[in-house]
Structure formats: structure tokens, C-alpha cells
Amino acid sequence: MDLIYEGFVKAFQLLFTLDSEVIEVTLLSLKVSGLATLISLFIGVSIGAVIALSSFPGKRILISLVNTGMGLPPVVVGLFVSIFLWRNGPLGFLGLLYTPTSMIIAQAIIATPIVMGITIAGMQNLPVTLQLQILALGATRLQMVWFLIKEARLALMAGVIAGFGGVISEVGASIMVGGNVKGYSRVLTTATVMETSRGNFDIAIALSVILLLLAYSINYLLTFIQQRERPR
Amino acid sequence: MKRSRNLFIPLVLALTVIATWVAPSWGTAPANKTVILATTTSTQDSGLLDVLLPVFKKQTGYFVKTISVGSGQAIAMGKKGEADVLLVHSPDDEEKLVEEGYAINRTLVMHNDFIVAGPAGDPAKIRGVKTSTAAFQRIAQSRALFVSRGDKSGTHAKELKIWKGADINPEGKTWYQQTGLGMGETLNVASEKNGYTLADRGTYVALHKKKRLAMEILLEGEPLLLNIYHVMVVNPAKWPKVNLAGAQAFADFLVSNQAQDIIGQFGKDRYGSALFFPDAEKDAKSLGL
Asked: What CATH number was assigned to the domain covering residues B31-112+227-282?
């Protein structure tokens, strides 16, 4: 128990003394996961909306594939992204392996099915007659889709929250494609793994506390946006 | 309509701010100024590289990306041309790599030694045993728990060599457990489960100093337990993308007087004794192998 107490003390020390390395690692976590979530938001919502609103053969198979993707293991994503980005691999000419960019790519791949799956569920949950009403009021098809997306915003925000939660907390892909390079591609989760294996349990606990605080603040912000817009 | 539009605007705005903020870090350092170092967990977990790399960067301007994995994986990365320079401690595998032409300019950097650590109670009674081979035989006979790295690291290779010398195949035995993890984590597991393990002294001392290990050094000082680190450059003739200049600069740096001094001093302040012994320009055989 002493250890956990020491860890918390350490966390506050690191935070309030603005330890430059910890701040750097925290900001990188935020950058990488924030950007990955942003990318997954655009891809996930647009493709998710198309899948939800159209009917085609094999739709159920596709949706179940997306739903399976919601549980995509980060290490599997990390492995495949690494293999593709190896400098002697198919996309090696990009020179992206062991950079923050490759971590964003991997995390976007992890978050996209999550956002997409929740988008599909949220939009399918809208009354079917709504589409007809909107079209009857003279909206173009594109306007209708935009309106429906806004109508499903509670679910979409839930998707963004779940996607962000999935990537800010993952370590498997980040350590494989980022390499945990000091001052460059080290994020909170990979630093926690490293400090644990170094036996610096107090710092590891401190980093976990910082990670949880960060996740909470971001989620508070997202939830605030989500709930403020609740139809009254 | 207007009210609901408010939803995405702040969000997209916030994320766009993040996007513009991250953008400058997209462009990485020029490729030829970046060196990928594949190394063992012990050089990173002990903290040695954290001291050496800033000095190297200041001297040469090269930015070293350390990928800290077991020696087995580090050597595999060299073989696939995914690293520029290797700092590893698995001599038999290294010699094979050089013979096959995947690595060049293999140079002795430093050594420390392996120790056999175990619970203070010492259920297999290996305290006082002279050789690791005999100690391993006792562990096997008493079926006391042995925790292995199991990750093809340099330490794992050494451990397998000792088992082989003891004429025991521990694979699949109930008292033999493989973690597949780094040295620090494996020591934690062995400590928690009251098991024996083979560890490099650097990681053991660093971890023990933090007073989290319920273990003691039960066997040390045998020539077979020497742990020797070599640096080598991945052969650009096999893999043209290798940053030869940067890799060679790093290899040269490691055996320079300045780096060798740092290596020899490292850990004295924190742990009371050095964790590594500098060996530049020595012959590996002179160490007593």
C-alpha cells in the first residue's frame, strides 16, 4: 500500500513541478491519440453513415465485420503496421516506422471501427420515417445525411469517446510502431511499461495516475459537449 | 438546426488545433541524421543509454532511435536490415551474423556478468556451489521453480547454454516457467514466485537497489557467466538503406575514451558499484572466456 501512496505523491510531484519529460510524454499522448481520433471520426462517421443508410446485399456481413473490428487487438494492428512500414517493407519508402506519425496511423486503425460501429448503431436507431420526412420537406440527399448525422449526435459522441478511450490507453501498437524512443515517440502507456520493467514502480504509478487524469479531462470535455446538446 | 450544428464545431475546432499543433513534429529529422539502434533490454532498463545518447547527439548531431528488445530480436532486426547498428550480448549468435555477412565491424564494448539469483531460503541448496552447471542440476533435481526469460535474448541464450552443459532439457517441465518478457519483468516474476533465475548483474543491481526483490545472489564469479557486449554495424552491402555513416559513428563513439569513461562510472553514484566494465580494444578471450 505504501507503494501506491508513494506513486500518488510522485504523480503530484511530477505534475506540479512541471517535470519537462513527463509533460512532453503527456502532450505526445494527447497529440497522437487526439489526431488518431480525429481521423477515425471522419472516416468512421462518413463510411458508417453510408453503411447505415443504404441497403445492399451483404450488409449484415459488413456490419458484423465492423463490429468485430471494434475489438481489434492493438498488438495485431501494431504488428501489421510495422510489417508494412519496415524500411524494406512495402511502404518502407515513406520512412515512417518509429515516428509519431506511424503511431497515429496505427491508433487511427484501432479507433476507426469503434467510431464506425457505434455510428452505424446510432443511425440505424433513428426512426425510418425521418428520412422520408426530411426528403419530403425538400432537402437534397446530402442535406438529409447531414441532418441524420446531427440527429444521431449522442451516439456519435459516444463513438468518439469510446474511440479515444481505446487509443489513449493502448500500448501494444504504440510500442511496436513507435519504438518508445525517448523524447520522440514515448507516450504515457509505453513509458509506464518501461518504468515497470526498470523497477521504478513509483514513477509507473505516477504515469498511470497522469494517464487517468488526462483521460478523465478529455472525456469530461467530450461528455460536456455531448450532454449540452441533448434535446430538451 | 442551428443549435445542433454547435455540436461538431467546438469538437472539430479542438481537434484541428491539435492537428496543427502536431503537424510540425510530423517532419522527422533528416533520415541520414537518424540512427536506429537495436539493443538489449539491459542497456535501456539500467539507464546506461539515457546517459550515453545525449553525449553522442551533442558530439555528432545524430539522433539515435533506441529500439530496446531482447538480443534475439535485435539480431533479427539487423538481419532484416531494419536497424543500423546493434549493441547486443549474445556472442554465438553475433558471430553467426557476421559470418553470414549481415553485420560488419563487430567490436567489443564492455562486459558485466550474469548471476544466479533465487529466494533467500534457497530450497535447491545452490549456495556455495561452484559452477552454474552444477547449480542448475541441483535446481532440476529438487524441482525448484526456475523462471526463464524464454525470449531468445542474450540472457536466455546463456541460460540455454548452461542447461545444455548440465545435460538437462528443462523445456516443458512443471518447475520451469518462461515469461517471454524482459529482464526486469522476469526478475519481478521470479521474486514474486520465489523462483530462481539467471540475470545480468546490471539489471539485478538496479532493481534490487529499489528494494522490491525478495531475492539474493546465490552464485557469481564463474567465467562461464561473463556477459559480453559487442557493437556491430548492419552491412549496407546487404541492406542499402542502412545509415552506415551514422551507425559507424555510434560504434566508434561507444569505444571512444569518453564513452568508455561514462560506462565505467555509470551506476557508481546510485548503486555504489559500476554496472558495466569498459573493454574497448581488449580481446574477448582475455576476459577469461
From this structure: 3.40.190.10
